[in-house]
DNA sequence: CATTTCACCTGGTGGC
DNA sequence: TGCCACCAGGTGAAAT
């Protein structure tokens, strides 16, 4: 399940591989629609353009596209469009040779000037592909704040007056961008906060503990993933990634690593939620 | 508006 | 071995 650390790792991997490469031809499958922009328009917009840089914004992989030929002015002024990839649950980006057999559920193939291909594979089709043409100097980003960048005051302000469980609030991408089910559960454990607690009722100390826990857990996961990037840029990052170190996620009934109490599983906002009833009050 | 629920998808799992 | 109900969860639309 690609969340912030996985998407960060994948975006870095794509950037390292594709920066400077040019799209010669773009192919999109017509079946169903994992597209926010019509396939024909995406293909037209991508062909001939160069990957100027790739970065992560929330759970989105943002590819900055620019002209193949052009004056070498400042890079940001060359950005003409953003190709935005959301991996959903099962999306993967693969850098392959053109000869490599196409996997089932391949929805996009970009032929590159370097002779390679960038492929988007997504069995469940929760992923989304979008092309945004930009006015000069314009830039788009998803609405939520970045958990790794937000400060104490702004973080506390996000939850003020909220009557939803803190777990649900953490999953709300309009508040914080990039958190999913795994890291929400892990961070709440790390901070010692019960997932059902009403977000607006958390104390300042608890909120700060949560903010720090988020940073710690996310940075740790990025460190693990960042060291194992390969040509196969997968939804899970590389195998293992972070799952070996989960404290509560999908450990229902198993002993808490801190106190031994069996981990409990409940449902919040329709999502499986795991916590330690003793460590998290 | 804030909040909750549900549909969208396929592959993997476990029961029989 | 096969069949099938069920679960996983990111997101956005619909319902409350």
Architecture overview:
The chain is of the alpha+beta class and 281 residues long. The protein has helices at residues 4-18, 39-46, 75-78, 152-159, 166-171, 181-191, 204-226, and strands at residues 23-28, 50-57, 60-66, 81-86, 92-96, 106-112, 117-121, 128-133, 232-233, 264-268, 271-275. The protein folds into two domains: 4-133, MutM-like, N-terminal (N-terminal domain of MutM-like DNA repair proteins, Alpha-Beta Barrel); 152-275, Helicase, Ruva Protein, domain 3 (Orthogonal Bundle). It contains seven helices and eleven strands. The strands form three sheets. Strands 1-6-7-5-9 form a five-stranded antiparallel beta sheet, with helices on one face. A hairpin with a 2-residue loop joins β10 (264-268) and β11. α6 crosses α7. The two termini are 27 Å apart. Mean pLDDT is 87; it is low at 227-231 and 235-240. The protein binds a DNA duplex (16 and 16 nucleotides) through residues 1-3, 32, 59, 86-90, 105, 122-128, 162-164, 168, 171, 173, 180-181, 269-272.
């Amino acid at each position: 399940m690609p969340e912030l650390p996985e998407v960060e790792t994948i975006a870095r991997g794509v950037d390292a591989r594709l920066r400077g490469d040019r799209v010669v031809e773009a192919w999109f499958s017509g079946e169903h629609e994992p597209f926010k922009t019509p396939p024909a328009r995406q293909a037209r917009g991508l062909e001939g353009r160069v990957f100027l840089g790739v970065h992560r914004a929330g759970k989105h992989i943002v590819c900055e596209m620019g002209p193949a030929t052009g004056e070498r002015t400042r890079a940001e002024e060359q950005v003409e469009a953003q190709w935005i990839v959301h991996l959903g649950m099962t999306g993967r980006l693969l850098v392959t040779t053109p000869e490599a057999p196409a996997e089932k559920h391949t929805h996009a193939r970009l032929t590159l000037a370097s002779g390679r291909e960038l492929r988007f594979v997504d069995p469940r089709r929760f992923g989304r592909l979008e092309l945004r043409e930009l006015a000069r100097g314009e830039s788009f980003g998803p609405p939520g704040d970045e958990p790794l960048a937000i400060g104490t005051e702004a973080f506390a302000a996000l939850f003020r007056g909220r009557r939803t469980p803190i777990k649900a609030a953490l999953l709300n991408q309009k508040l914080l961008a990039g958190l999913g089910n795994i890291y929400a559960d892990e961070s709440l454990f790390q901070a010692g906060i019960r997932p059902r607690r009403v977000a607006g009722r958390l104390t300042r100390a608890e909120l700060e503990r949560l903010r720090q826990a988020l940073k710690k857990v996310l940075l740790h996961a990025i460190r693990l993933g960042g060291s194992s990037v390969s040509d196969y840029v997968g939804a899970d990052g590389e195998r293992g990634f972070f799952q070996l170190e989960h404290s509560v996620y999908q450990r229902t009934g198993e002993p808490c690593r801190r106190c031994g109490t069996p981990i409990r599983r409940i449902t919040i906002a329709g999502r499986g939620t795991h916590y330690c009833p003793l460590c998290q009050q």
